[in-house]
Description:
With 336 residues, the chain is an alpha/beta fold. Among the domains are: 10-40; 172-222; 233-305, no CATH class; 308-336, no CATH class. Helix content is 32%, strand content 12%. The protein has a 5-stranded mixed β-sheet. It has a two-stranded antiparallel sheet with strand order 1-2. α2 (175-187) crosses α4. The termini are far apart.
Amino acid sequence: MAQDTKSPFLPFSDIAGRAAYFEAAYLKQLEVNTAPEQRIDALERQVALNSKTSSRPPSSDGLKKPPAVKRTQSLRGKSDRKTGGQPGHKGKTLRQTATPDHVINHYPEICNACGAALLASMAEKIVVRQVVDLPAPPPPEVTEHRVYQCRCGQCDAVTRGAFPEGISAPVQYGPRIAGIASYLQTYHCIPQDRLSLMLSDLFGLSAVPATLARLIERTADRLQPFARAVCEGLSGPQVAVKHLDETGFRVAGKTQWLHVICSPLLSHFRISSRRGDLLTGVCGLVMHDHWAPYFKMEGVWSCPAYVPVSQLIYAAFRSKAKGFLPPSDEWRRRGL
């Protein structure tokens, strides 16, 4: 090609100009391609949406409903054992009782062969089947307390009797109803509206949610001595290893903290407005989630929950020693 001939596509004669031209063309093409790519990504996300990944109702999935995905997966591998109860396992099944509450006899009235009448004295063999059921819920039981005032025959003074402790209103629910309401609402997490409906359907009680709240609060007051005994037992030396944790949640629109101290047999929960409101007077080995204030507790061996068992062995070994010594080289060499 002659030197004076101009290229129709690349009007730049020097190398730097050509490089700049190609770079500008490349950047311009990237901008052109960005819009279609963003549009494709948006359409793909829209097509992939379903009731699991968006606020759409399950009915919108139609026949293309995705298969259910297990949220958790067991780490246990396959076993050679058969499914079901294993040898030596003490199973529980419904068994007949020797003392039934009601017995209903069923005799045949006529003979199936000749049609003759049959009597109860002709019975030779008996087959027993039992049905276990609940009796009809009884109506509420009302106990009336009457307090009298008497006039003395000698001094003419008037003395009035006293109601039993806890009887403070003209009409009120008793401790058994309060206990059932507290058990169903706090342990089984039944909302108070549904609990009110349940007590009405089963027992004919017209306890509104506000009344149930007072009953549950009254039950909580009665259980305070028991709660203190559980807390003291878990904090003391009776329990060698105890677990402490805390979590935040909302109560009446405000952040509160639920503190727990527990062992394999007992658990004590308490609510505080401060996360750092830890128990005092705790002794023994404390397992926790490595939150810094737990390491500052006095009189305890502090151990994060994810520490290997080998370090627990070392903690037990150190607790028997007279002094608090750091791990020796021999412990480090063994990985303890």
